[in-house]
Design a protein that fits this description.
Elements lengths: L12 E4 L5 E4 L10 E4 L7 E5 L3 E2 L5 E12 L7 E7 L7 E7 L5 E11 L6 E9 L5 E13 L5 E8 L9 E9 L9 E6 L3 E7 L8 E8 L6 E10 L14 E5 L4 E6 L4 E3 L10 E8 L1 H4 L4 E12 L3 E13 L15 E10 L2 E15 L3 E9 L7 E7 L6 E6 L14 E3 L1 E3 L1 E6 L25
Antiparallel strand pairs: 1-4, 2-3, 3-11, 4-10, 5-10, 6-9, 6-11, 7-8, 7-10, 12-13, 13-16, 14-15, 14-17, 17-18, 19-31, 20-27, 21-26, 21-28, 22-25, 22-27, 22-31, 23-24, 23-26, 27-30, 28-29
Length: about 450
């Protein structure tokens, strides 16, 4: 986008009910070099498309489009939808390449790739960045280094692997490997594998027929029989004739394999993304407390061994100092004051590395905490050397219940045993998975099958 600043690129058109402020800007936040394409916030609303200059597609049947992108969101959601569209008839009709509700989370800085089918006889294509809704609900949308090229004939892409990030040793979990056909040739003779670091194959399934630009998600069951602890897995598509092997492997997914007799309870399923719960990176130091109620946990007299949160970070943030304390209380809300940490247990005191993208944060306890059956208080004190933007954790909102209390500052870290003199409250609480140990004598873990008993001989003597 090496064009005059403050304008849209030559040959491009902004088609809008109310024009949002698209322009070429002297910045380089999308990951390329300045200048770049830039959309800031404004009071404009409605449907808009920033439409490219025409692209000659005579003789092409399939295209590969990629570009660098970074969207810095605003923590308000008014129902906006954004996306990328293409047209082969000068805007009479539009084909959606991708779209998503804007929500409140960022699109992390990175290179994004898509495949486009060209209709027979088409000679011209235009692509457009679409924004539908209130433009005030965004901070910045940044785009650079758009490349459109002929799609290869044979190119299978392993796009992602997802699944349980805290599997239990000896217990089956299912993982999902996403494969996209980026080649013009329909494929069927390939294998999809689940791999572990060190090129160790864990499981595999045969491929099925997949056409150009088609996406298939393969389910691969796997039972961990490895030592408990941190491991990394990835998806792999193997195809002997593949012309671009660099995209055959997905990004790694970090697992924390749990010991046998580990169970879990999940609390919260909301999609509220907050940058201040259970920690705040806008400031160097933060302290938070959150209540999880006895009826949500269910069991009592069980040893808790760890907590897991779901987060999205725009960049790697390493060596974050966290002090985590766990305690219990009969208090039902945190509207008026903090819960005293006297009698709480320090369950984690160390440094944590957050990785770019969406991930699961698992906090293993230094020592198990024996949960007695009252409301659980999770108390986290965080320290970091600088401010970081684009750091959110998934939360659930429940109106009229003050589940969380927070405070932050920049001058000095908090001593967890000295409560902040100030604070503010929230109806939100971080979605959490609580992991605990159980044994064969626990009543709640006894499973009775009335048809499972066979007596022989009949009558039996013993």
């Amino acid at each position: 986008f090496n064009y005059p600043l403050g304008q849209i690129p030559p040959g491009w058109v902004l088609d809008a009910e109310q024009a949002p402020p698209w322009s070429v800007n002297n910045s380089m936040m999308a990951g390329g070099q300045a200048p770049e394409l830039y959309l800031g916030y404004s009071m404009a609303a409605g449907l808009s498309r920033l439409i490219s200059a025409p692209v000659d597609v005579t003789g092409y049947t399939g295209l590969h489009l990629k570009y660098k992108q970074y969207l810095i969101n605003y923590e308000m959601d008014f129902g906006e939808v954004i996306g990328l569209d293409v047209t082969f008839d000068d805007g009479e009709s539009w084909n959606v390449i991708w779209e998503r509700p804007l929500g409140t989370i960022n699109i992390p800085q990175g290179e994004y790739e898509y495949y486009i089918e060209v209709p027979e006889g088409a000679t011209e294509m235009k692509y457009a960045f679409r924004y539908d809704g209130n433009n005030y609900a965004i901070n910045l949308w940044l785009i650079d280094d758009i490349l459109i090229e002929q799609a290869s004939n044979n190119d299978l892409v392993c796009a992602a692997v997802t699944g349980n990030t805290t599997p239990v040793k000896g217990k089956e979990s299912v993982y999902y490997v996403e494969v996209v056909n980026g080649g013009l040739t329909t494929q069927s003779d390939y294998t999809v594998k689940l791999m572990m670091e060190g090129d160790v194959e864990l499981a595999s399934v045969p491929g099925t027929t997949i056409d150009f630009n088609q996406k298939i998600v393969f389910e691969i069951p796997w039972t961990p029989n490895i030592e408990a602890g941190v491991s990394k897995i990835y998806g792999l598509v193997e195809y002997a004739q593949d012309e671009i092997v660099e995209n055959n492997q997905s990004d790694e997914l970090q697992l924390v394999v749990q010991t046998e007799h580990t169970a879990s309870v999940a609390i919260g399923d909301g999609n509220v993304t907050l940058s201040f719960l259970p920690f705040n990176f806008f400031n160097k130091y933060s302290a938070t407390q959150t209540l999880y109620y006895q009826e949500e946990i269910g069991n009592s007299n069980i040893p808790l061994k760890g907590l897991a949160y779901t987060y999205q970070f725009d960049q790697d943030v390493d060596d974050v100092q966290l002090k985590v304390l766990i305690g219990e209380t009969t208090v039902q809300n945190l509207e008026n004051e903090w819960v005293s940490p006297e009698g709480f247990s320090f369950v984690y005191d160390g440094f944590y590395d957050f990785k770019k993208g969406t991930g699961t944060m698992f906090i293993p306890f230094d020592e198990p905490y024996l949960y007695q059956g009252d409301n659980l208080v999770v108390y986290i004190v965080k320290s970091y050397t600088s401010q970081v933007i684009g750091t959110v954790v998934y939360n659930t909102y429940v109106e009229d219940v003050w589940r969380s209390r927070m405070a932050e500052r920049d001058d000095e870290p908090w001593d967890p045993m000295v409560l902040p003199e100030f604070g503010y409250t929230s109806y939100c609480y971080p979605n959490i998975k609580i992991l605990y140990e159980w044994d064969d004598t626990s009543i709640e873990n006894q499973i009775v099958d009335n048809n499972s008993v066979l007596l022989y001989p009949n009558p039996a003597k013993d």
